[in-house]
Design goal:
transmembrane helix; single chain; 5-stranded mixed β-sheet; alpha+beta
Length: about 325
């Protein structure tokens, strides 16, 4: 990011063979199509936090941001799956989207609330309430780490993690004030303090602290109380998550975010040049992106609208000649 400009932070998400980037004015998605070209789509999108002062209040904005990221994430993944040729339908219906989100949330509650509470309940007699809460937290972190370690070995997920690295490297190059080229992006770290993975890790750690103050209730009571308290945990985690923006050199802040930065070494991989090109396309196509005027787009890109028009265009008819018969 050029030093003379006031900072505007851009974020993103790794997709299936693609990357989504977003800023205050809108979003852009880019994906490598089956034929090798980069297909992109961009548009305006106002964050819910900007629509109401209530949604921008501390703690509340964290819950709103989490809910918004879930919806945007699912819709972006669906788009990229279609572009890469893995799905036949481009968009999920509202019912299908709602079902997918609810299913994901229920699985999260089962694995990160219900299972740890049941497993740790047997330690109460030996460790007491505080020890039980600590064991619950350790089980959550172990489940999260185990899940990431297991899926990162899958070829398709490994590709997503490479695009995750490309997303981070591209944003880091922009914030370092460098020209957005493949060579410059390659040299950047694949770790970024504003990554959603860091937010999840921070939430898991804060669950240990917040849930320690829950009274010595039964298993069912603890499960219900923790489900109700989860929005509070997300709200606090989001405020801690934002601290590096205000206090990047503060030692305490660096200690707080260290676990999230470490976990990114598992959720990102080194991208190749083609994956970086996709991330560059996504960032440069974000509406009102300041660097679009003086950075060059990768070659062989096409908008989704142009691609659709190309598909709809009548194909030239083959002619039959009698010459030589």
């Amino acid at each position: 990011m050029p030093k003379t400009q006031s900072p505007e932070y851009f974020g993103g998400q790794a997709l299936i063979e693609g990357v989504m980037m977003q800023g205050s004015q809108g979003y852009a998605m880019a994906a490598r199509a089956a034929g090798g070209r980069i297909v992109y789509k961009c548009g305006k999108r106002r964050s819910f936090k900007s629509r109401s002062k209530l949604f921008s209040l501390p703690l509340i904005r964290g819950v709103i941001s989490f809910a918004e990221s879930i919806y945007v994430g699912f819709s972006s993944l669906t788009w990229s799956a279609f572009q890469s040729g893995e799905e036949e339908e481009e968009q999920l219906s509202w019912k299908e989207m709602a079902f997918a989100i609810v299913t994901a949330l229920l699985l999260t509650i089962v694995f990160f609330v219900i299972l740890p509470v049941f497993a740790a309940s047997f330690t109460l007699e030996y460790l007491g309430p505080f020890g039980r809460s600590l064991v619950e937290g350790l089980i959550r972190v172990a489940l999260f780490l185990g899940y990431i370690i297991a899926i990162r070995r899958l070829p398709d997920i490994a590709r997503v993690f490479e695009y995750h690295g490309a997303e981070h490297k591209t944003i880091n190059a922009w914030e370092a004030g460098l020209p957005l080229t493949v060579e410059n992006v390659k040299k950047q770290s694949r770790i970024n303090c504003r990554c959603g993975t860091s937010f999840i890790m921070m939430s898991l750690i804060l669950m240990v602290i917040v849930f320690t103050f829950i009274g010595n209730t039964g298993v069912l009571g603890r499960i219900i109380t923790k489900i109700i308290a989860m929005p509070l945990v997300m709200g606090i985690a989001y405020e801690v998550f934002r601290l590096p923006l205000k206090y990047p050199n503060n030692k305490l802040v660096q200690i707080l975010i260290a676990p999230g930065l470490w976990i990114q070494r598992l959720t990102t991989k080194e991208p190749d040049a083609k994956e970086i090109e996709v991330a560059l396309t996504a960032l440069l196509k974000v509406p009102a992106f300041p660097g679009a005027a003086y950075n060059q787009l990768p070659a062989d890109i096409i908008s989704e609208a142009e691609l659709e028009a190309e598909k709809q265009a009548p194909q030239p008819k083959a002619t039959i000649t009698t010459e030589g018969i």
